[in-house]
Fold:
Amino acid sequence: MTTPANLPANAPSSLQRIRQDVQSMHAYAVQDATGLVKLDAMENPYGLPPELQAALGQRLGQVAINRYPGARVDDLRHALATHVDLPQGWGLMLGNGSDELISLLAMACDVPAEATPTGRPASILAPVPGFVMYAMSAQLQGLDFHGVPLTADFELDEPAMLDAITRHQPAIVYLAYPNNPTGNLWDDRTIERIVALQGQLGGLVVMDEAYQPFAARTWLDPMRAHPERHGHVLLMRTLSKFGLAGVRLGYMMGPQALLAEVDKVRPPYNVSVLNAECALFALEHAPVFAEQALAIRAQRGWLLAELARLPGVHAYPSEANMLLVRVPNAQQCFDGMKRSGVLVKNVSKMHPLLHNCLRLTVGTPAENQRMVQALQTSL
Structure:
């Protein structure tokens, strides 16, 4: 490669314009699932019935893709509000998946140090192991991230959480309900005390209910029952686990005055007309997806029973569409299952608490049988 004549031979590289912390990061990795049973990403394994697939295709063919998104996105917002029975005085904003909403929250809460209660830069706090985007969004926005380890059985460490909140006074506390990758719902009384302390210190709490279709409880109920305790709480969901992972549609709900401020940093037209139309179509056929969720929950129970028969395997209880499983050697099992044509997620290096753990997505009955057989063979 030659240097242009008007530049010195030792001209600086344009890479120097990229932040050093970004250069040192690893990009979010998506495993190649070609030719494999894909059970690594908590996707709904069921597609639309053929007649609905055809109807959706016909409908999308009529969308004016030459126009920017407009009133149809508002229709989706209203449809979601009806779907969740949005409480009076609440607002709802849309994101290109939950990931964008998490990034927008970090951006909106990036208050300079001189304006924070502690005199330190704004920060984000969450239990770990948890969803990686909480920490990544903080880093990309230049915020500190404080991870508070769960207990050995993946419960919230209440004293440690309360102490960390008191010391760091974070702008945001994330609580995934159920948690990823552990799949469990934490104790409600512990959450209530965390919510109360964070509110007393003037911070936000974001309840992340990405896996709500498969859970026995929702934090929307306490928020609805006790609005006076939740003026600083936002609740986030996604249609990815509903059955539309490819559509990339997340939404966040909470007190209108609070949500309106976060919504100011949302890019215009962040949800495409195709995404909005797909989501509207899905909501119109919500019973189909509800039946799929019931089937997944039933298969989750079957998987737990089958995994309990395997020597050396411990599967943790789950309220999501995944199971965290501890095995004698995670890498050996992951590689062996892959050789058998089944792709799962090796989370053993994400956090010390996940030593020798795999995360298994709940699939169809045939996929689950093949997954159990592959795991048994890999042992």
